[in-house]
Amino acid sequence: MAGLPEVTVAGTLTADPELRFTQSGIAVANFTVASNERRRDPQSGQWVDGDATFLRCTLWRQPAENLVNSVGKGARVLVTGTLRQRNFEHEGQKRTVLELDVTECGPSVRWATAKVTKVTRTDANGTSPAADAWGAQPANASGFADEPPF
Q1: φ/ψ (deg, to 5) at 81
Q2: What's the pTM?
């Protein structure tokens, strides 16, 4: 059985991401990405915007906090995640929305620049955990800590 579809969307944040915390202290960011087609009208020679698609997105844990500290309203972003359909009833009418459970999100560098700052992880005591293979500096010229240089 196949899983839910994973998609990547390029779009613009319609507002600053909203950061909240669950009762157990887990961070969750909610935001909306707007994306639309833009094409050149061959008769007028002008650029024409198509209808916008709005996609509600949810990002959890540390990446949620990182997103809120990195981008804001109007930022162009790339968002990857699992596409879900949710049905609900509003004022007696049945409605369907598509939502994205985000696994990756970052700024688009197509028309902007971005500076990346690595987040320092800490344990429950506020101290940095022992260096791991992903966070440690490479030990040799090959760029891998556990492989000999070639």
Answers
A1: 180, -170
A2: 0.72
